[in-house]
Each structure stands twice: as structure tokens, then as C-alpha cells.
Amino acid sequence: MTELSITRFIDAPPAKVWDIMTNRIDEWWCPKPWRAEFEGLEKRAGGVSNCTMYGPDGEVHPHPGTVLAWDEGKRFAFTDTIVGDLQPAGPFMIGVWTIAPEGDGTRYTAVARHWTEVDAKRHAEMGFDEGWGACADQLVALCEGQ
């Protein structure tokens, strides 16, 4: 298995979820008490995705990457495999975030696709379910106005 995923139903229309996902990304992107800052996010395929995560004890984790897909209102995808001006980096994953209408709300799904089973297992052991689940829950709370 090289793919890990998280899904949530959000009791809000897709347009609202997309707006919050993309325009308020710093507010839900990493689990609290950590915080994320996107220094650059070009909303287009081939664009730059530069995010830094800051921990409560002074930790700083830069996450440079490239936007692979930006399908307005539906999905976006990033990778850490390519950074800067098409420079190769150590491949770890491709992340894909999608939304789709479901009943009166929206189905949110986040997927991490890894090159190897070892990378997927390492990501799971790093706390994928807990971390990405917390991010999904933070997005749900923002979208549902909680």
C-alpha cells in the first residue's frame, strides 16, 4: 500500500468549502498548536507551493514544493518532489485534496501518494491519521462555522 487517505463529510456547500480550503489554508493546514504559513502558493499547475510549519517549541519545518494540479472548485495537488525552478528534490509524496458535492454538503478527501511502501509506512508511523485527521477536523470546523 502506497496511499494513505482521510475523508470527512462537511455540512456546507462545495463553494464555501473550496473558498475556505484555498483562501484560508493557513488556518487549517497543520494540527494545532502548530501553525502553517504559505509564503507562496501559485494556484495553477506548475506553480510554487512554499509552506513553513511552526511548532509550539520553536520548531521550524519548511515544505517547498510544486503545485501539480489546480482544478478550481474541485481539487488541488502538491508534491515535494520538485521544488523551485523545476529542481529535483527527495521524493516522498504527492498530496491530493478534493471536494465533491454529497447530499446537502461536501465530501472532503485528502490523499498522500508515496513512491514506496516504506515511505507510506513511515508517513503512517509519523502520525498521518492523527495529523491529517486533525487538519480535516479543523477545516470542517471552519466550514461549519464552529
Automatic annotation (TrEMBL):
<dbReference type="InterPro" id="IPR013538">
    <property type="entry name" value="ASHA1/2-like_C"/>
</dbReference>
<protein>
    <submittedName>
        <fullName>SRPBCC domain-containing protein</fullName>
    </submittedName>
</protein>
<comment type="similarity">
    <text>Belongs to the AHA1 family.</text>
</comment>
<dbReference type="Pfam" id="PF08327">
    <property type="entry name" value="AHSA1"/>
</dbReference>
<feature type="domain" description="Activator of Hsp90 ATPase homologue 1/2-like C-terminal">
    <location>
        <begin position="11"/>
        <end position="143"/>
    </location>
</feature>
<dbReference type="InterPro" id="IPR023393">
    <property type="entry name" value="START-like_dom_sf"/>
</dbReference>
